[in-house]
């Protein structure tokens, strides 16, 4: 059984909101057992918004949360970092309605969490283990989750663009694989879409420093971090959005041409089907648990 964890100490950073363009001071703080991840608006007298599907608000090119008069937007990258590093409880304090975009990936949040350190709490973490398949479709977009011994994600994307027609990737998500293979993947957009979004008052903080921008003939940034950085970022997004179920998932998540609206609708749909899952206190299967037990009479190695 794994204990719940929180941050060992507080840590903060300053950044820019991707869509608002506002300067944001963000602080990550320890939190108590079973409190979950909570966003606290210091500019609204400390109003808090829990990071749960029940509080999903506007979905406009990012995932937003709302409670009473408080809103918080673009939460998905930070939530993906929290769940993948095993942070169950934390306060995210910010003085603006949008989490800073940083470099467009989850890597800066990984750095902040690792610098703050982690602390075990006197309570057991519970995992949401998938028992039977469940799916959701909207037009040509679909997402499903299947029983599995681990948390695994398969994602495929398809765009009508010569540079980005189709990409697909399957990866078992562990702390190590997330940090090395998923967290550095940056958000992306097409140049013509970025221009339209700005006319609508969105992407005001976007730049080549915090997003991969695709023009008619290629990527406007200097270089991609991965050949398939686009689909890796979609995996990052869905991990963050599915964190809103409130527990780490044990199952195989499969998505095709999804987005934040579909991801968050599926998270709510999953919770509405309680016979499709159960809560367990260990991600290990019986054979794995047996292998992990100490052998009676064995002498531990000394390094």
Structure description:
This protein has 303 residues and is an alpha+beta fold. It has two domains: 3-124, lpxc deacetylase, domain 1 (Ribosomal Protein S5, domain 2, 2-Layer Sandwich), CATH 3.30.230; 127-284, lpxc deacetylase, domain 2 (lpxc deacetylase, domain 1, 2-Layer Sandwich). Helices cover 23% and strands 33% of the residues. It is built from seven helices and 19 strands. The protein has helices at residues 76-84, 107-116, 175-182, 191-199, 229-242, 260-271, 286-292, and strands at residues 3-7, 11-16, 23-30, 37-41, 47-50, 56-59, 63-67, 70-73, 90-94, 118-124, 127-130, 134-138, 141-146, 151-158, 166-172, 188-190, 212-214, 249-256, 277-280. The strands form five sheets. Strands 11, 12, 13, 14, 15, 18 and 19 form a seven-stranded mixed beta sheet that branches. A five-stranded mixed beta sheet has the order 2-3-9-4-5, with helices on one face. Strands 6-7-8 form a three-stranded antiparallel beta sheet, covered by helices on one side. Helix 1 (76-84) crosses helix 2 (107-116) and helix 5 packs parallel to helix 6 (260-271). The longest helix has 14 residues, at 229-242. It is globular, with a radius of gyration of 19 Å.
């Amino acid at each position: 059984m794994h204990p719940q964890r929180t941050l060992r100490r507080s840590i903060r950073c300053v950044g820019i909101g991707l869509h608002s363009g506002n300067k944001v001071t963000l602080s990550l703080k320890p939190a108590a057992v079973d409190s979950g991840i909570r966003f606290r608006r210091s500019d609204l007298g400390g109003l808090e918004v829990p990071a749960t599907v029940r509080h999903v608000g506007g979905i406009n090119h990012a995932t937003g949360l709302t409670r009473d008069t408080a809103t918080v937007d673009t939460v998905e990258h930070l939530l993906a970092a929290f769940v993948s590093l095993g942070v169950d409880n934390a306060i995210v304090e910010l003085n603006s309605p949008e989490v800073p975009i940083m470099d467009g990936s989850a890597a800066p949040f990984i750095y902040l969490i690792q610098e703050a350190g982690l602390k075990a709490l006197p309570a057991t973490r519970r995992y949401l283990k998938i028992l039977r398949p469940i799916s959701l479709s909207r037009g040509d977009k679909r997402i499903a989750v299947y029983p599995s011994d681990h948390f695994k994600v398969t994602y495929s994307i398809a765009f009508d663009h010569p540079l980005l027609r189709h990409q697909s990737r399957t990866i078992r998500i562990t702390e190590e694989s997330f940090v090395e293979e998923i967290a550095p993947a940056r958000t992306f957009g097409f140049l013509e879409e970025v221009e339209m979004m700005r006319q609508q008052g969105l992407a005001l903080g976007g730049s080549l420093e915090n997003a991969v921008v695709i023009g008619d003939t290629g990527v406007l940034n200097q270089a991609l971090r991965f050949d398939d950085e686009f689909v890796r970022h979609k995996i990052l997004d869905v991990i963050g959005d599915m964190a809103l179920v409130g527990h780490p998932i044990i199952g195989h998540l499969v998505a095709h041409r999804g987005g934040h609206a579909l991801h968050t609708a599926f998270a709510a749909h999953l919770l509405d089907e309680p016979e499709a899952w159960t809560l367990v206190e260990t991600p290990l299967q019986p054979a794995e648990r047996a292998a992990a037990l100490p052998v009676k009479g064995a002498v531990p190695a000394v390094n």
